[in-house]
Structures are given as structure tokens and as C-alpha cells.
Amino acid sequence: MKSITQINSIKNIIKGCIKEDRRSQKELYRVFYAFSIAICTRYANNREDAASIMNEGFYKIFTQIKKFDISKPMEPWIRKIMTNTAIDFYRHNLKFAYTSDISDYEHLGDRYEQIYAKLHYDDLILMIHALSPSYRAVFNLYVIEGYNHEEIAEMLNVSIGTSKSNLFKARAKLAEMVKLAELGTNEKKMNVEE
Amino acid sequence: MEKERKNIDELFREGLQRPLIPFDEMHWQAMEQKLERKRRLRKTRVVSIFVAMTAASIAVFLLLHIDKPAPIRSNVVLSKPEYLADTAVVSKNAKVEDRHRIDEVVKNRGNVGQKENSQGLDNKSRLSAASEGQYFGRGEIQELTLAYRLSAASLDLKLAPAASPREIKMQIMEDTLFVFEEQDQRSNSTKQLIKESPFKQKGTLSALAAPDLSNVRGAGQYSLSQNVGLLYTHSLSKKISISTGILYAKKNYKSSYSFYKPKSIAEGIQLPSDVDASCDVIDIPLLVNFNVANLKKTKVTLSAGLSSYFMLRENYRFSYDEQPSYSSSTLYNNYEVRGENKHIMGVADVAISFDRQINDKVNIGIRPFVKLPLTGIGYGRTRLESKGVAITVGLNIFGR
Description:
The structure holds 2 protein chains of 2 kinds.
Chain A: H1 4-18, H2 22-31, H3 33-43, H4 47-64, H5 74-92, H6 121-130, H7 133-144, H8 149-156, H9 160-193
Helix pairs in contact in A: 1-2, 3-4, 3-5, 4-5, 7-9, 8-9
Chain B: H1 2-15, H2 25-66, E1 72-78, E2 89-90, H3 96-118, H4 123-131, E3 135-136, H5 138-148, H6 152-155, E4 158-159, E5 166-173, E6 178-184, E7 189-196, E8 203-216, E9 223-235, E10 240-256, E11 274-295, E12 298-319, E13 332-338, E14 342-357, E15 362-373, E16 384-396
Parallel strand pairs in B: 3-4
Antiparallel strand pairs in B: 1-2, 1-5, 5-6, 6-7, 8-9, 8-16, 9-10, 10-11, 11-12, 12-13, 12-14, 14-15, 15-16
């Protein structure tokens, strides 16, 4: 929950952005940086692509900020722009899409030396990146963003059946990766105990 | 199965919420570059559209007029000795208004002749002169006969002929373009008496604003630059004039660093990959203009000459492929030079002007131009070229 001071500060930043003031633009970018790159990272193949999607999203934000209703919270608007930009990126790069094999990610367990009960953000992102772009997009939109299959089908230009099927397969692959990761972690733990 | 599904969803939904990702300055720099690029592109588009529309409007306007050479409406030849009085041979197809105009001109010319005959003489002296057989102008005869209530014959007044047989040629064109020539038939010499033309101005001061595309020769990257200033044009003859002035130019240009040939480079430093330059320049051109066409109110002039560049401020942004060891955290480095470089007659300047007379004092025009380097420009001694279209507003500062 943001304080009144923070809200007023963001409003001032938005006013500066409307005037195309570069310092205000940087401040807005800084304030919503972590939030935005987290969204983009979930859809992108890697960190470079995520930064590229985020900057494209911020460019839309800066050029359309006059249309933003200053009385409303900014996060949902930014989330929508970032998600749409990521989907555009997904559509554009669909022809380069690949399907990964689960065996490629068995090494994930090596990364969990300090994790026992819960997987770390970086590891989850690594698993998300291990999915094919079409599985990843559906999983993100359905599970994280909360869209339904009808909306996803329209956004990704696929059938509702494909959306459901991709979600099912994405979950199965993620579950397998999580199991592998936990197995790896447990083995490491046992080795440490021995 | 359902439980596993829920667990997976929950695990990722919670695990991916609000991660602590530190701000990366490099990402902002990429963003800033993107904004700057788009801003320049937007500016270029706006200026290009404005220039294109202005040029198109002026071109259409000029074409509508330039295609039609001004028709000669009446040819007049004054060839008799008495032309000073009121005689003229006017072509049969002369328009009524032209006849009036010719009458007026002839009358004025006649008055000049009469004045020449009567300089410094009062009526009494004129009578005395008449007795000596001197010639008088028609006006003088009329004046004397009225003064003395006598007939011209009784006073033995003789109408003055011209000093020598002469011929005056006159053309009356659209928009009062008069050309007069007076030929002395005895000496067979010709002199121009009057030439009334819309472009008779001796000196014109023009304000000039010009967007241009600047580039380093061979680099293939064009950047929008701006020029504003004043240009003074002085006519040397009917066809030739010279121009000079002072222009302030903001030259922006980008290129690979390989096009840069600075006088000295410190040894062992990492060379930049690309350079983005922005320079404030005073441009002093010296041009010779040749009037290639003078059609109705439109003048087409070809100009060629040399420009001198005085570099007030040069700002270079060097980009590196890899982070230089001496730079704290970025792949960029800025370098500024102030007032160190000047290039006297270092740039060839070629332009063609289309000027349209608005009234006796003012003309407007467009002026496509090219500036080509004869020497390396600025700190990097780059071959900086500019191509643009100037919009000019000229003021005839000596009046008509």
C-alpha cells in the first residue's frame, strides 16, 4: 500500500513526464523498474530480451502518459502495457520459437544449495524460461495475470483448446522441473549431512 | 492431480511476486537513447513535412507563373526628332491602357527636353532668344504666346527638334516591366535609359532559416541540423551579384569513429566505436550569384562560393563496444571543445534560389543548397556535408 506522500510524488513525476521532462521520466522508470522487468522477464527468453521488452513498454508509457487518468493507480496500467508489449514480442518472435526438452533442465538442482523448503525467484524464472514461448505465454497469462482461456486465445491468436492444452503441458513440465530441482536439493542436503 | 496443479500455480504465483531486482543504469541508458532517437525522428518528420509542404506550395505557386513568360503587350518606337514633344509609333495592337501609359512616358520625356531648352530663362529673355532664332519646346511656345497674347508665328518661335536624331525603343510588358533604349543615330551608340524591373534592387538583405541533413561523407548516417541567419546580396550587374552574411548552424552528425582523424590521439587508449556529434557553428558564406532566369516576378539564381566555419562549441559523445578502463560505469564518454577550430573558406557552397517578388520591398524564396567540405571539419577533421532547403525572406534595403 502506497502512502499519500508516495502517491503525490508519483503524480508529480507523471506531470513531469507529460512535459517530457527527462528527469521525471527517469524517476518513473526507476520507481517501476523492478515491477516492470519482473513482468517482462516472465515472458522473455532471457534478461536482454526482457530489458528490450520493458524499454518498449516504457516508451509506450512515456508517449501515451497524457492519456493516463492520474486519479487511478498506475500499476495496473503499467502491468497491462508491459503484458501487451510482451505478447507483441511473443507474436513477433513466434517463428523463432523452440520446444525445450525437460532433460535440459536437470542441472537446475545444482543451483539450490541454500534452498530447502522453497524455491528461489531466480530458479522459478529459470524454469519459466525453460518452457517454450507458447507454453510460457499461456502459463503467465492464466496463472500469474489471471486472464481466462477465452481472453488468452484472443490475445495469442490461438484456439481456446490450444490455450488449455498449452497450460496443461506447461504445468506438467514445470511440475517435473520442480520435482527434479527438489530431488537435486535433497541429494545435496543428504551429501552434506553424510 | 488437482492438488499438484494448485501447488504449481501457487508456487509460481507467490514465488514470482515482487522480486527484489536492483535498478540497472544500463537499461535506463538504452531507454534514454531510444527516447532521444524517437524525439529526433519525430522532429525530422515534422520538419520534413513542413519543408515538403512549403516547398510544394512554393513550387506549385512558381510553376503556375514561371511557365508563362511575361507577354509583350506593346512595342513602341520613338524615332522622329520631335519625339520629345509627343510623337510615338505604337503598335496597332497596343491596349488602350498601354497607350495612356506610353503617352505619359512620352510626355515626361518631352518635359525633360523642354527643360533643357529653357534653363535659366525668363519670358523676356526667351523673347530675346527668339529674335536670335533659338528653338523652343512646345510647352514654352504655348507659355509665351499666352503671356504675350500673341500667336507663335508673330513671335517667330520655332519648335525645338531633338539635339540629334534618336530612336527610343520601349516594351510594355505585363506588370509594368519597361525596357527603354535610346540610340543616337549619328554616333550609332545605344544607352539604356530606364529599366524598370521587379528585381531592380541593388542590395537585398535576406533572413534565412534552413533545416538540413548533415552527414559525414561515407558514413551513411544523416542527422537533422538547423541553420538561421542573414544574407546580404549586392547586384554587380544585370545578371551577377555577390552575397555574404552570417549564419548560425547547429550541426548534428553521427558516424563510426573510423571517419575521425583528430590531430593527436593519446597512445594506448581504447578507441570509441561510434561518435555522435553536436556542434554550434558560425557559417560565413561568400557567394557569387548568377541570375539564370528572370520570369515575371520570379527570379532563378544559381549561387556558388565558399563558406568559412567557425566552430563555437563541439560536443562529441563517444560510444564504446566495451567499457573503457578509465570510464567509471558506462559505455559512453563525452568530450567538448570550445572555440578551437575554424575553417576559413573550408566548405564549398552551391545553391539555387527561386525568389518570388511580393511587393517593391519584399521577396520570398526557397533555396535548395549543398555544402561540401574542402577540408576536415572540427576536432575529428571529418568530411562534414550538409544538404538542405532554406526558406528566405528578402528585403530590398535601398528601396526602388
